[in-house]
Amino acid sequence: MIEVFMKGLLRFAGKYLPAPLTAIVLVALWQLTATLSGANPRLLPSPQVVYSSWWADLSSWQTAWLATTFEVLVGMILGCLLGLGMGVLTFSSRFVRRSFYPLQLVAQTIPIIALAPLVLIWFGFSIWGKIALVALYASFPVTIATVKGMRQASLAQVEVAQTLGANQQWLRRHVYLPASWPQVFSGIKISATYAYGTAAMAEYVGAAAGLGVYLNAAKANFRTDLVFVTAITLALSTLGLFLLVWVLERLVVRYPLGEKR
C-alpha cells in the first residue's frame, strides 16, 4: 500500500511540480539580482517591494481587477457562444463557408491596438465596448475550432444515422457537435489566453476602471512596482481562467452535452 502511494505521489510530483518550482526559482533569482545589484527600485523593484506595493494599494488594485474580470467573463461567454454558433453555421452552410469563413480568418490577424481606439470612439468609457472587443477576439478561435472539430466526426456514425433516417439537425446535435467538443475547448483555451490582455489593452486606450487604467496610472507616476503588479496580475488571472476552462473541458468532454448520464 505504501509503495503504491509513493509511486502515485512521485507521478503527481513529476507531472505538476516542475512548473511551480521553476516559477519559485525565477522569483528567487529576481530577488537576488535586485538585492545584489543595488539597482534603483524605481527601475528594478524586487519581488518583496512589488508585494509590499500591491498590499499597500490593495483597494485600488481590487477595484481594477474586478472591473477587468467582469469584462473578461462576460466577453468570454458571449464570444464562445458567438464562435460556437458561427462554427456550426459555417460547417452547415456552403455559402457561409465560402463567403464569411475566409474573412474570419483574416479578421483575427487584426491587432487589438488597431481596434481599441474605435471601441473608445463608438462606446466611450463604457465597459460594454471592452466586453464587445473581448467577445470578438474570443469568438475567432472558437469558430475555427468548431468547424475543425465537426469535420472530425466519424463517417461511419454519420452513415449509420442517415441509414436510420436521421436528418441534418439530428446529426449536428448527436454526432457532429459531440465529436467537436475537444477541438472547441482547444479554441476556448486559446481565447482564454488572450482575454485579459485584450480587455487590459482596451482599458489602456480609454476606460473608467480596470487593469489597463491601473497600468496607465502606474506608468504616468513612474511606479514600476505597480507596473509589475499589473503584469503579474494579468498573468495569474489568465492562468486562473485557463484552469477554469480546463475543468469545464473535463466535465463536458467526459459527459458530452446532449447525452444522458
Topology:
Elements: H1 2-16, H2 18-37, H3 47-56, H4 58-92, H5 94-99, H6 101-107, H7 112-123, H8 127-151, H9 155-163, H10 168-205, H11 211-220, H12 224-254
Work out the strand percent.
under 5%
Largest sheet: none
| Cα-to-Cα separation, first versus last residue | 33 Å
Radius of gyration: 23 Å
- Gross morphology is flat
Helix content: over 70%
Treating each run of at least 4 consecutive H or I residues as one helix, how many helices?
Answer: 12
Average per-residue pLDDT, rounded, comes to 85
Strand runs, count = 0
Residue runs with pLDDT of under 50 for 5 or more positions? 257-261
**What is the SS-derived class?**
mainly alpha
Q: Could you state the order of secondary-structure elements as H and E?
A: HHHHHHHHHHHH
What would your notes on this structure say?
This protein has 261 residues and is mostly helical. The protein is built from twelve helices and no strands. α3 (47-56) packs across α12 (224-254) and α7 (112-123) crosses α10 (168-205). The longest helix is centred in the C-terminal third of the chain and has 38 residues, at 168-205. The radius of gyration is 23 Å and the shape is flat. 32% of the residues are buried. Residues 257-261 have low confidence and may be disordered.
Task: Provide a brief overview of the structure.
The protein is mainly α. Helix content is 84%, strand content 0%. The chain contains twelve helices and no strands.
Provide key terms for this protein.
261 residues, single chain, disordered C terminus
